Amino acid sequence: MSDKLEKLVEELSTLSVLEAADLVKKLEEKWGVSAAAPVAIAAVAGGGAAAAGEPVEEKTEFDVVIKDAGAKKIDVIKVIRQLTNLGLGEAKTMAETAGSKVLAGVGKDAANEAKKKLEEAGAAVALE
Question: pTM for this structure?
Answer without folding.
Answer: 0.55
